[in-house]
Amino acid sequence: VNHLLGIKYITAADIDLIFKTADHFKEVINRPIKKVPSLRDITIANLFFENSTRTKLSFELAEKRLSADVINFSAAASSVKKGETLIDTVNNILSMKVDMVVMRHPNPGAGVFLSKHIKASIVNAGDGAHEHPTQALLDSYSIRERLGEVAGKNVVIVGDILHSRVALSNIYALKLQGANVKVCGPKTLIPKYIESLGVEVELDLRKALEWCDVANMLRVQNERMDISYFPSTREYTQQYGVNKEILESLDKEIVIMHPGPINRGVEITSDVADSGQAIILDQVQNGVAVRMAVIYLLASKIQ
Ligand code: CP
Predict the structure, then answer these.
(1) Ligand 1 centroid vs 54 CA: distance in angstroms?
(2) Model pTM?
(3) Range of the domain at 99
(4) What is the CA radius of gyration of the chain?
């Protein structure tokens, strides 16, 4: 059975194939008839054990554009609340003849764990602070679209690296494609192992912005935070928030990214988030084509 459990488990050639397939689907979904019949015989269950707006809707739309049958499950409104386990929940859903599972879960490694117990393909839609592979793929795809290629580009990931599955998956994806990667943020929000991944740490935001071609601004994840670790929100914004003034003082125009949801006025001001320099909504738009590609390529191994 084939899965997408993390960028850690795939190769640069896999990413290249996903992007070429996504290029095709991006062209398809810009046509008046946006649907293709490719996955007519495939049933996909979207299992969300944690909240989501973008990822959940993007996967559902990608699956429907491919003509798959789609069922949606939200843990908050399910028998998980009565104590049913993850494996029992998934096996009950699979017994209804489901071929593929897209899962978001608060526990790191939930997808890897599940892959040892079920026979369906699994796509990780975010597992705790571990990985969010399709987010990293759509992020790199969006850099490629804006700058022509990812190889050789300087990318800084700014903010709460410690709690971020987006950061880890982006680091794996960017390094695989030959980008130079730095992380920037308060020392308390940068994990000690990060340099072992071939990533430099820069504590000074201005220096990081002067160096980079692309800045990927992350949300401070208060919901995963031990509050004693954290500088105050005001301190964080003063030292690590990106605003128009700092961007205009640089000698080049850098690309601004954000995976969403945005804390406007904390890690990024509205005048930056809504500017032409930001590709935040392009990232969301590209997410549908990239997820179509991932699902299509996995499903072609099931059929
Ligand atoms: N980027 C992202 O994962 O957003 P959601 O949590 O809304 O899915």
Answers:
(1) 5
(2) 0.96
(3) 7-131+286-302
(4) 19
CATH (domain of 14): 3.40.50.1370
Residues 195 and 148 in one domain: yes
The predicted pLDDT at position 292 comes to 98
Centroid of ligand 1 to alpha carbon of 46 (angstroms): 14
pLDDT in tens, 206-227: 999 999 999 999 998 877 776 6
Distances in Å between the alpha carbon of 189 and those of 177, 228, 230, 295? 25, 11, 8, 33
Ligand 1 centroid, distance to 135 Cα (angstroms): 8
Is 122:274 a contact under the CB 8 Å cutoff?
no
- Rounded distance between C-alpha atoms, residue 302 and residue 168, angstroms: 28
Say if residue 98 is in the same domain as residue 143. Answer: no
Q: Is the pLDDT of residue 1 over 70?
A: no
**Binding site membership of 54 for ligand 1 (Cβ less than 6 Å):** yes
Mean of pLDDT values over 60-64: 98
Q: Are residues 175 and 62 in the same domain?
A: no
- Out of 51, 55, 130, mutate this one to test ligand 1's pocket (max ligand atoms within 8 Å of CB): namely 55
- Report whether pLDDT(229) > 70: no
Regarding whether 139 and 65 lie in a shared domain, the answer is no
**Nearest CA owner, ligand 1 atom 5:** 52
pLDDT digits (tens, 9 = 90+) for 105-129: 999 999 999 999 998 999 999 999 9
Task: Compute the C-alpha angle 39/115/61, nearest 5°.
Answer: 30
Q: Is residue 2 situated within a structural domain?
A: no
Same domain, 54 and 86: yes
Q: Order of strands across the sheet with 69-74?
A: 69-74, 43-48, 100-105, 121-127
Residue type, 91: N
Asked if residue 272 and residue 160 are part of one domain, the reply reads yes
User: Tell me, what's the pLDDT at 222?
Assistant: 75
Q: Are residues 160 and 259 in the same domain?
A: yes
- Residues 104 and 236 reside in one and the same domain: no
Domain assignment of residue 1, yes or no: no
